[in-house]
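Thread: D-malate complex, take 2
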Amino acid sequence: MSPSSFIHRYLPGTDLTRHPLLLLHGTGGNEDDLIPVGEMIDPAASILSPRGKVMESGMPRFFRRLAEGVFDYPDVIARTHELADFVAEQTTAHGMKKPIAVGFSNGANIAAAMLYLRPEVLAGAVLIRAMLPLPTGPEHALAGLPVMIISGRVDPILPLDNAKRLAEALRQHGAMVDHRVLETGHGMTRNDVDLARGFIAGING
Ligand code: MLT
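Output below.
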């Protein structure tokens, strides 16, 4: 495996005019976790689903944290570039369109970090339970990039106020942000899947 490579699954879609989905799991998940969700969101799209390389008590994640909600920022930055390089390589290798990231929890946070640092590798993002990934940024103009953030009003792990600040930061840099708040907690619900499906159908036109 080359240094920028990730354990992953790639499932070619039946309609290559659609943007592939880049599925990014939460803490303790793996590359298989979100495949059924991706297939519900867009059954015709290709899927790229990497496994996070950081281990926290045996649970895969996409970057290190010092405590819940307290991120190791240098690690966030390094891992974000590594993942973005992998996504760019895979996009070229499979002759795909740029993917739309669909991330949950820790996966949503690394997707948010990609929007901050490497937005050129993505066609958009759905961030299910996200927070500010870095203290400053985004670093690049996001020129109309479509982003949906879906928060849980009573999420004890990713506070709504923090997600609102993320939405604002992305908007200030030109992203087209649709921030939805569900009357729920941290776990992913059917409503998340339905919102993501509608949003991504809109991007694909
Ligand atoms: C994170 O570490 O990215 C967030 O706290 C969400 C989590 O994975 O629990």
